[in-house]
Amino acid sequence: MLSAFQQFFTGRPTIAIARDLLGKLVTYDGPDGRTGGYIVECEAYLGENDSASHAYRGRRTGYSESLYGQPGNIYLYQIRGHYCFDIVVQDAEEPQGILLRGLEPAVNPALMARHRGTTGVSVTNGPAKLVQALGIHSRQLDGQPMEGNKLTVDLTTFKIPREIITAPRVGVNLAGKDGAAPQRFYVAGNPYVSGMRKREMDLATQGWRA
DNA sequence: GCTACGATCGACT
DNA sequence: GTCGATCGTAGCT
């Protein structure tokens, strides 16, 4: 039996789940304090049939094993010496995940900036940056459920995006089968979206509904 | 054992 | 805009 928390992450299209995650609050209870932020950008990876997915063509190794877990689990992996954080969705038969790419700091922003050694939007405007800002520097949480964990998402604390933009994913081979698929979602105008240009930012509302 | 290659970042022009 | 650093994983010999 799935909990209400797990049910949020299954039973409907991954793309719909990804859009619903925008504005939700991610928190981490680290050894040097609690950090957290609102999700402003994420990407959907649709499992074995998605050429950009780690599970493409049924590829299943120790490295990507966590994708084949329960909905709401943590998939924490390393790429080019950096950690990235996915939320596992659907179920063990469908190795799908949602990559978090941008957070708006909300819980202890000063500590998050210290973790990154910088200030401003570059604290969390990228998948590896937000992981480092939260204070995560190992794969210790990989494969664990988020519910009741140190690293979790609070589905009851959220902001409502004014407008959601759909776009192709970042850093994937555009020439690949699904390279140009519109599976990236972000809050229009929010400065913590990766690659957001200054003139596209909405500094008055940060992209949130009043 | 060895090599190639990323769901990236930051420095630089 | 371009480019190099970086390092764990996978796949091959």
UniProtKB/TrEMBL annotation:
The keyword Amino-acid biosynthesis is annotated on this UniProt entry: no
Keywords assigned: DNA damage, DNA repair, Glycosidase, Hydrolase
UniProt-listed Enzyme Commission number(s): 3.2.2.-
Biological processes, Gene Ontology terms: base-excision repair
Any matching Pfam family: Pur_DNA_glyco
InterPro entries on file: Formyl_transferase-like_C_sf (IPR011034), MPG (IPR003180), MPG_sf (IPR036995)
Domain of life: Bacteria
Top-level EC class: hydrolase
Example GO molecular function: DNA binding
SUPFAM superfamilies membership: FMT C-terminal domain-like (SSF50486)
Presence of keyword DNA repair: yes
Family: Belongs to the DNA glycosylase MPG family.
Name assigned to this protein: Putative 3-methyladenine DNA glycosylase
